[in-house]
Amino acid sequence: MELEKLCSIIADVMGIEAGGLTEHTAFVEDLGADSLDIFQIIMGIEEEFDIELDAGAAEQIISVGEAVEAIKRAVG
After folding, report:
1. In sequence order, what are the residues at sequence separation of 6 or more whose Cβ sits closer than 8 angstroms to the Cβ of residue 20?
2. Rounded to an integer, what distance in angstroms lies between the CA atom of residue 40 and that of residue 63?
3. What Cα–Cα distance (Å) separates residue 12 from each residue in 7, 31, 37?
4. Nearest-angstrom CA–CA distance, 12 and 55
5. Annotated catalytic residue 12
6. Which of 8, 24, 33, 43 could be disulfide-bonded to 37 (CB atoms 3.0-4.6 Å)?
7. φ and ψ at 45, to 5 degrees?
8. What's the start-to-end Cα distance of the chain, in Å?
9. CA distances from 70 to 15, 49, 50, 53, 62 (A)
10. Which CATH number covers residue 35?
11. Count of domains in the chain?
């Protein structure tokens, strides 16, 4: 469930198809995301899941799978 919602957020921000995203997809290396893209993805995550990600932890998220794990930890 988290993965599907997250992929939708990423696809919207990056202007790509969500179907090509996997847990191993890296935001910068694979998608070419810059700091603004990543900020928008984090903001989308926080809004969609009604959570707040610690800024330090958010900076360490480099892949879709890591973002899913951060969401799971924040949701509890």
Report:
1. none
2. 15
3. 9, 13, 10
4. 22
5. no
6. 33
7. -60, -50
8. 14
9. 23, 11, 13, 8, 11
10. 1.10.1200.10
11. 1
pLDDT digits (tens, 9 = 90+) for 15-46: 999 999 999 999 999 999 999 999 999 999 99
Range of the domain at 65: 2-75
Give yes or no for residue 59 having a pLDDT over 90: no
What percentage of the chain carries pLDDT values higher than 90?
87
Segments of the chain assigned E as strands? none
Measuring CA to CA, which residue among 26, 38, 11 is closest to residue 63? 26
CA distance 55 to 8: 22
